[in-house]
Design brief:
- By secondary structure, this protein is of the alpha+beta class.
- The protein is built from twelve helices and 19 strands.
- A hairpin with a 2-residue loop joins strand 12 and strand 13.
- Helix 1 packs across helix 2.
- The protein starts with a helix and ends with a strand.
Amino acid sequence: MINPFYEKLANLAVNYSLNVKKGDRVYIVGPNFTQELLQALHVEVIKAGAHSFVRPLMEGGAEILLKFGTEDQLTYVDEVVFKVYKEFDCFIQILADYNTRKFSLVDPAIMGKWRAAPKRRELAEIMSERHASGELKWVVVPYPCQSHAQEANMDLFSFSKYVEKALLLDKEDPAREWTQIDKEQEKIVKILNKVEHIKVIGEDTDLEFSVKGRTWENCSGENNLPDGEVFTGPVEDSVNGKIRFTFPGIYSGREVKNIYLEFKEGKVIKATADQGEDLLKVILKIENADIIGEFAIGTNYGVTTFIKNMLFDEKMGGTIHCALGLGLPETGSKNVSAIHWDILKDMKQPGSKILADNKVIYEEGNWKI
């Protein structure tokens, strides 16, 4: 019998987040040790009258490729993968790992070649464009595992409860709760969609950019579980100023600490970090990774602890995050890149604020609208 936790999570993902319909083709991917959640998702897809393609991922597969692969092998993506990305109606990705530090010894240059492969960029474009057009629905869901619990400095039981609360699975009807959040955030989005200029003030931060003609998105459980953010894509060449990210950037399990970036006419002109600066410099060399593709404000005040897991951390109420690289077409963003790297900043510190068209809309972690 499947654990009721996974049954409830699968029900929420398949029937609320994706609203899977009869005849849909659903791609489900996750590590092979997440078998119980893979099964629960498969059950819900079948019950919805759809067709599921379940792909368990082998432990160590990526490490083997990075250790022994030639450049041709590192950049190769099979046509079967393209067929899935072009044709399937729904994607479900399970976020879990048996070892979050598995890439720690990988040369950043090799990591860059792997991540920035033209074929992977093409996949990202296909997924973004199909999602923006409504052809493809996708959701990322967590699986409470030992490695993520360890990163969060928790035991597995405590981490599982943390996940349960963050996803609102502790509520009688999680779908109804997320629907209510959607309604509340829509009020904020309607105001932001009338704004043309954003300015962010904070610790070592004075960043401004245009959002004229761009759309703000309301995130309330459709693509991420947990969720809770509003985001847009800045006009690419309008970003100017500086920002210091107060939380580490996590890239393929590696930490880049105390990231400081300066922008001029949309591009990074200076980048430093106290730890992992070599990796930061490699990332910024990836095509269009030196451009902000997303600016977002976290709205989930139930997520209170930074656990080195961006699926949770970026939703934290009282924070903002910027994504270097790929922008989401539904916002109007035109930035295309092989990566989308979210980096987080605490906005609860004294003096921190966000101005929209010169009016303070957010101050020290709280909305003023």
